[in-house]
User: Fold this.
Amino acid sequence: MKILLIGAGNMGLTYIEGMATSPLITKNKLRIYDIDPKKRETLSKDSRFDVFDNLEDCLPSADLVFIAVKPYHSDELFEQIKPMLNKNQIFVSLMAGVTIESIQQKLGAEKVVRAMPNLPAKVGKGVTSYTESEAVSKVELILIRSLLDTTGTSIHVDTENFIDASTGISGSGPAYVFYFMQSMLEAAKKMGFSDFDSKVLVSNTFEGAIELFNQNDISPKSWIDKVASKGGTTRAAIDSMEDNNVTQLIQDAAYAAFDRAVEMGKED
Ligand SMILES: NC(=O)c1ccc[n+]([C@@H]2O[C@H](COP(=O)([O-])OP(=O)(O)OC[C@H]3O[C@@H](n4cnc5c(N)ncnc54)[C@H](OP(=O)(O)O)[C@@H]3O)[C@@H](O)[C@H]2O)c1
Assistant:
């Protein structure tokens, strides 16, 4: 199976590097096309990849095409590649807010998988949600899932509404965690800790809490109840968050991303 990545930016490269570790990718090198000649030159030094200077040489014979350009570059790209395609090719789009129907219409393609990645894929801890058009077979989907899983884990969802919803949770979610981290870093610095110590305190607190959550079958709420005893320090912090309606604010933020993903699909 010949796999081509179009758009070797942050996400595209993360996925192609993940796929390069897959035992399924043995005989053929992974193919890459990016519009930026400098990027192509750098990538062509990597022996795992075949980097192409034009799409005519790599796209018509590709079986599986990962598309990882920014959504606002998609129309231009689709117009360019449409004449080079055939009906058996499968397209996996990592683009936020670009619907399967619009990809099918603009490319004249039948087999389309839409996936929503997230940033921790860069360190093999990503979570990708994905769904597919009817024409994609079960066997094709198993292969695609195994490729997506090379960057972490994946969940299959039945409708694109869940792709937009997962944009609000996992796609944009790392930024919510960074927001919380940044706020805690700033609090630590205000309390007088050095930059270094603030980072140690905050990053280990996050890592430790995640580890506890992963290693035990206890909900975050139960963990809070365990540690926030009446009249204690943690209870004072949680009460302050509750007085300020932080739960609602975080949920509003997740819905803002979800709504924006839906809106982008409509604009498209
Ligand atoms: N980053 C995330 O956390 C994240 C999360 C969820 C979803 N996504 C989705 O992932 C996709 C890629 O995002 P990204 O952050 O990886 O973007 P990026 O770093 O800008 O990468 C896109 C790459 O595609 C290239 N490109 C643009 N037009 C092209 C064309 N016609 N043919 C070939 N290459 C072309 C760009 O070159 P130039 O730089 O020269 O334009 C760039 O190298 C987006 O659609 C985004 O919605 C990203």
Remarks:
- Residues 6-12, 33-36, 39, 68-71, 73, 76-77, 94-96, 117-119, 171 surround NAP (CB under 6 Å).
- The two ends are 31 Å apart (CA to CA).
- The first strand starts at residue 3 and ends at 6.
